[in-house]
Amino acid sequence: MLCGTVIALSGLNITGCTLLKPIPVAAPIPPNEPCEAQQREIERLQQLLAEKEALIRNLNVRQQGQAKALQETTSQVTRDQVRLRRLATQPGAASSIAEAEVAMTSLKSSQITAPEQILQAQRLLGAATASYAKGNYGIAMDHAAQTREFIGMVKDNRTRKASDQRLAMVSFSIPVPLRAKSNINLRREPFGSAIKLGALKKDSALTAHAYLGDWLHVQTSDERSGWVLNTLVDVRVNDSDH
Q: Are 125 and 146 in contact (CB under 8 A)?
């Protein structure tokens, strides 16, 4: 009987030892690993930020270069325009109008042109023929050239793919007179979220010197320069030319 009791107690002792066996603890994470991971992430973000800043600097330099080139081109165009008016002759004006009429025919036959754009080009061409009829050959040549410039812009923008990111600013050989269709904003750069340089009232006179996609680089009557969307303006024709 005593032997059985000893054996039973021994079994309980063994069971108790088994239950009280300590649970293994996972090896501690080296304290330096989280810090090293954070440092690598910081370095990656710093590198990304540096690349973005370099891209912005390059874009700013490019934009400044384009603005300078546009200013030089505008001055040259103004000089050429004055010279052209002095040298304008009846045959020269007739030839220029004929070229504009050919471009107009091509525009009308295009399936990608909005009726409003055809109407605007037609107004410029009508101003050219009206000035020619009055003997104002220099002005007639100006309007004929503006007609070709406007048509060229319309066809260029409509034939580009919407996904084409290689857009470049194109200067007009002859500035195109415009007016604001409604109250609009003059912006520093050619996109909708660009900084506003000021507000322009409806019918404000503008002169377009270049375009970039659907945006026009214009100068106001008080010599401010900026960008407007071409759908917000209309061609402007001096009634005195008719």
A: no
Evaluate whether 70 touches 98 at the Cβ level (below 8 Å).
no
Instruction: Name the CA dihedral angle for 70, 74, 76, 82, rounded to a multiple of 10 degrees.
Output: 170
3-state secondary structure of 179: strand
H helices of the chain, in order, are 2-19, 32-87, 90-109, 115-133, 137-159
Q: What is the largest CA-CA distance in the chain?
A: 142
For the stretch 77-113, pLDDT in tens is 555 555 555 556 788 888 888 998 998 888 888 766 6
- What burial class does residue 116 get, using C-beta atoms within 10 Å of its C-beta: 0-12 exposed, 13-18 middle, 19+ buried? exposed
94: burial class by Cβ within 10 Å (0-12, 13-18, 19+)?
middle
For residues 146 and 122, give the distance between their C-alpha atoms in angstroms, rounded to a whole number: 11
* Domains annotated on the chain, with CATH: 61-160+168-241 (2.30.30.40)
Cα 118 to Cα 229: distance, rounded to the nearest angstrom = 18
What pTM does this model have?
0.56
Structure confidence by residue, pLDDT tens digits, 47-67: 877 777 777 766 666 666 665
- Which of 194, 219, 221 lies closest to 209 in space, CA to CA? 219
pLDDT: is 36 or 230 the higher one? 230
End-to-end CA distance of the chain: 135
Secondary structure class of 133 (helix, strand, coil): helix
Q: How many CB atoms lie within 10 A of CB 68?
A: 10
Tell me the torsion sign for CA atoms 239, 179, 137, 78: positive
Q: What amino acid is encoded at 146 in this protein?
A: Q
